[in-house]
Structures are given as C-alpha cells and as structure tokens.
C-alpha cells in the first residue's frame, strides 16, 4: 500500500465542516498558498500537498509512465481524498492544477463540491483559431531557460529534498528553495503541462466551477477564460483586476474575496 | 558616521558599480530606477527606461520563466538568486545573472524589487559548452545501452533458433537410416549453421560500432 500522505507531503490544517483542497501549480509547491491559508483556515479544513517531484514530496515515487499525462497527477488527488476519507470538497487549483482537478472530477464527481480554477488553461499552445497564449517555440525557449537555471537544485541537494526528518536544521534551507525540483522531473512536468490539451474534457464536467482569470497573464490570457466559460457546463468566469499568473500571491485579498463570494461565505 | 562613509560617495558607487542595478515595482514590474552601468549596457537614458516593465527586457523564454519561478520566489521568499537570463532589447542583447530582493518601503503597499545584473557572456559560453558535453555524453551512454540491449536480444532469440535446429538435426542424424536421409539432413544442417554464422557476424559487427 502506497503511503500517499508521505508521497505527496500532505498536510491538513484549519477547522470547519467543509473541506478545501489547495493544489499548487507548475513550478513551486504548497508554500504558494500562505495567504489563502490564513484567510480560509478558520472556516475550512484545508488540505495541502506537493505533487510528486515538487517541494518535499517523495522523489522516489516519481514514475515517468504514471506522470506522462495529467491523469497520473489527477489519480494522486483522488488517492489523497480517499486516504483522508473526504467527500464533496471545494477544490482550488492554480494553473495546471485546474485541469488536473477537472480530470479528477470527471473520474470521481462525488468527491467534489465545486472547482475553483485560478488562471487555468485547457490548452496553452496556440492552434489555428484557438488562442492559448504561447507557441511551441516559446515552450522550447522555456525548457532551455529551465536547463540553464536549476534554482539551487543540484545532485547534492537531492537528499535534502527527499526529506531528512532527523535533521530539522535542513528545513530552513529547504524553505528557501521552495521552487527547487529535480530538473529532469521539472522538465517532464513542464512538457506534460504545456503540451496538455483538455479542451474536449470541458463539456464533461458535472461539478459547478469558477474561473479566475487575470489581465496581462502571458501563460493564460483572458481569452482562455472566455473559452472555458463558453465550453464548460456550470462555469462562471470572473476576470480579476489583478495582473500576471499568480493572483493568490500578487492580489490575495481580491482572490479571497472572489472565492468567498462564489462559495457564499463572508 | 564611520571613516568609510566620508570616503565613499554612495551616489557614485551606485552609478559606477561594475554591475547593473535596477529597481522596479514587484506588482506590474514597472522600472523606477537604473544605474548608469546598466543604462550604458542597454544604450538608453534614465528617462527612456522609466516606465518600461522589467520583463520587457527579457526574451520570451525568460518572461515565461520569470512568471513561473522568479515572481513566486520574490513574493514568498522575498529573494531570488543567480537566475540566468538573456537580456534582449531593440539595440542590444547579452546574457546576465540576475539576483534580486523584494523590499517593503515605508508608505508603499507593495514591495520594490532591487536587482543586480551581471554580464556573463564568457561564462555563458563555457556553460553552453559544458551542457553540450553533458548532453553528448548522455546520448553516447544511451546509444551504448541500446546496442547492448540489441546484442542481448540477438543472443537470446536469434542464436537460439538455428542452434535448436542444429541440435534437433544431430539427434535425427544419429538414428539415420539411409544415405539419402543423411544427405538431406546434412543439407539442412549446412543451412542452419549458415544462419547461425550470420547472426554471430551481426553481433560482432554491432559490438564493434
């Protein structure tokens, strides 16, 4: 039996009768949710985790076949929810996690009360009359950038990232490298993320959903938000005043307000 | 005031530093200040650079990378270190190392980013060379592994087939009844040994390449 709690470095915090899962996007780990945690921890039971390959997840659990598509990550979410015996949760996914949550909700709709997509994209790459925002050349340029920037990760860092409970002094070092990931895994995750195309899945969603899109987001332009709203049953689009790809970091108040309004809490 | 403060002219230090210095708003990225070293490298005036968004100085890959990794680091950790970027403007282009800190200033709601920019043209070439060697070495290793797999396949399957034939034919030969039977079995044996010889030649050739 796989220990999914350890595998995905799952943490459950906060109090409330409702549950909210916070799923980080490509690039970093659960540390990106710090502002939302403060805002929601008194009203929700919050579930935080790191995808395999990110943060303090178990790097040994990385399986290139399982994680060759977003479904491998979607199955991880289902396994986490099953392990915690959670039914009908609010799911907040940033960026690629939006589509991971969407895939999980199609596989097991009863596990989800609602889906909140933060700067989502069902398809990042431009195609014919569809505007995804980036081109294949952009993706290659990004992968080159990742190759020349390991962000503090090196072979000597690997044992640290894999977790070293007997040496708590290492945790400080780890925190300052929350974007550090095994470069090979990061490269594969980038490929799976940016080449994914979930446009055909949108119509199969049965759980109500909210899309938060920002202005001037080069990874997921507003046009993508309109596309999702038009093609997803039960989706509501909210275009934020915030700019960029990470409104939960750049405009946490507006993000919290938009989510609270949608969930009917004050 | 210490003795050093009298000797050092901080304004001069800022402008004449051997690295580029730039300050911009974390939110939105609008540039507020740049030192003369950076302005010289970019071949622009102080007036021209103000109002430009910092990421506009980067190439497309750099802009995506900034949004995915650097921005979250500056938000969560208030610091990003040794990021390799390519600066691209209409007038110039160069490789640089970027380090930055996000600082809250009194009276301002959102942090200001103070960044250093080091030109690293030569080091970049050296890095590219190392990366190329690493990729080549990995390709070479993969090629060897593939060749070994193929050899193993030949040995286990292709060698076994003619060898099994030969063993069977020898068995029959032992109980051979007449000359005609023996002659036809010898002909079949020749065929199988020929096949075996070919397979072995292929393995030897494979091992040489």
Task: Write structural notes for this entry.
The complex is a heterodimer of chains A (266) and B (209). Chain A is an alpha/beta fold and 266 residues long. Chain A has a single domain, classed as Rossmann fold. In chain A, 37% of the residues lie in helices and 16% in strands. Chain A has helices at residues 4-7, 34-40, 70-83, 96-107, 136-148, 158-161, 170-175, 183-194, 222-231, 247-250, 252-263, and strands at residues 11-13, 18-23, 44-48, 89-94, 112-118, 209-215, 235-243. In chain A, strands 1-3-2-4-5-6-7 form a 7-stranded mixed beta sheet, sandwiched between helices. In chain A, strand 2 (18-23), helix 2 and strand 3 (44-48) form a beta-alpha-beta unit. In chain A, helix 2 packs across helix 11 and helix 5 (136-148) packs antiparallel against helix 8 (183-194). The radius of gyration of chain A is 18 Å and the shape is globular. The termini of chain A are far apart. Residues 156-165 and 167-175 of chain A have low confidence and may be disordered. Chain B has 209 residues and is of the alpha+beta class. Chain B folds into 2 domains: 3-119, Beta-Lactamase, CATH 3.30.450; 135-208, Signal transduction histidine kinase, dimerisation/phosphotransfer (DHp) domain (Helix Hairpins, Orthogonal Bundle). Chain B is built from 8 helices and 5 strands. A 5-stranded antiparallel beta sheet of chain B has the order 2-1-5-4-3. In chain B, strand 3 (79-88) and strand 4 (93-103) form a beta hairpin. Chain B starts with a helix and ends with a helix. The chains are: A alpha/beta (266), B alpha+beta (209). Chain A binds chain B through residues 26-28, 31-32, 34, 134, 137-138, 140-149, 151-152, 175-176, 178-179, 217-219, 243-246, 249-250, and chain B through 26-28, 59-65, 67-69, 71-73, 75-77, 79, 81, 83-84, 127, 131.
């Amino acid at each position: 039996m796989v220990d999914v709690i350890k595998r995905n470095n799952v943490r459950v915090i906060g109090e409330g009768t409702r549950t909210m899962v916070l799923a980080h996007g490509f690039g970093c780990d659960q540390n990106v949710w710090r502002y939302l945690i403060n805002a929601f921890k008194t009203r929700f039971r919050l579930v935080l985790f790191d995808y395999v390959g990110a943060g303090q997840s178990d790097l040994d659990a990385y399986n290139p076949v399982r994680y060759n598509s977003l479904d491998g990550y979607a199955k991880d979410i289902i396994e986490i929810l099953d392990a915690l015996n959670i039914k009908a949760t609010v799911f907040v996914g940033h960026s690629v996690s939006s589509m991971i949550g969407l895939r999980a909700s199609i596989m097991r709709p009863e596990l989800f009360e609602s889906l909140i997509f933060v700067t989502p994209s069902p398809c990042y790459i431009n195609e014919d009359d569809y505007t995804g925002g980036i081109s294949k050349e952009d993706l290659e340029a990004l992968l080159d950038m990742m190759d020349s920037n390991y962000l503090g990760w090196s072979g000597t860092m690997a044992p640290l990232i894999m977790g070293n409970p007997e040496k708590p002094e290492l945790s400080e070092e780890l925190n300052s490298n929350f974007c550090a990931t095994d470069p090979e895994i990061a490269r594969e995750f980038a490929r799976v993320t940016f080449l994914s195309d979930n446009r055909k899945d949108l119509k199969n969603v049965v759980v109500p959903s909210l899309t938060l899109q920002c202005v001037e987001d080069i990874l997921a332009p507003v046009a993508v938000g309109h596309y999702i709203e038009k093609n997803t049953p039960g989706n509501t689009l909210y275009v934020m005043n915030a700019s960029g790809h990470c409104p939960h970091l750049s405009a946490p108040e507006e993000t919290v307000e938009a989510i609270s309004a949608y969930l009917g809490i004050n | 005031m210490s003795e050093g403060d009298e000797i050092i002219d901080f304004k001069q230090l800022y402008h004449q530093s051997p690295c580029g210095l730039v300050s911009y708003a974390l939110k939105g990225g609008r540039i507020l200040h740049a030192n003369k070293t950076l302005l010289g490298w970019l071949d622009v005036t102080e007036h021209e650079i103000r109002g430009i968004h910092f990421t506009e100085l980067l190439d497309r890959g750099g802009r995506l990378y900034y949004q995915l990794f650097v921005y979250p680091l500056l938000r969560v950790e208030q610091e990003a270190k040794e990021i390799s970027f390519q600066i691209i403007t209409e007038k110039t282009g160069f490789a640089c190392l970027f380090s930055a800190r996000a600082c809250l200033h009194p009276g301002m709601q959102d942090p200001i980013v103070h960044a250093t920019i080091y030109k690293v043209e030569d080091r970049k070439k050296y890095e590219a060379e190392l990366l190329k060697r690493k990729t080549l070495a990995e390709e070479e290793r993969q090629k060897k592994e593939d060749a070994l797999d193929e050899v193993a396949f030949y040995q286990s399957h292709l060698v076994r087939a003619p060898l099994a034939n030969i063993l069977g034919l020898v068995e029959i030969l032992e109980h051979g009844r007449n000359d005609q039977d023996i002659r036809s079995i010898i002909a079949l044996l020749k065929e199988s040994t020929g096949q075996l010889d070919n397979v072995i030649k292929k393995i030897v050739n494979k091992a040489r390449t």
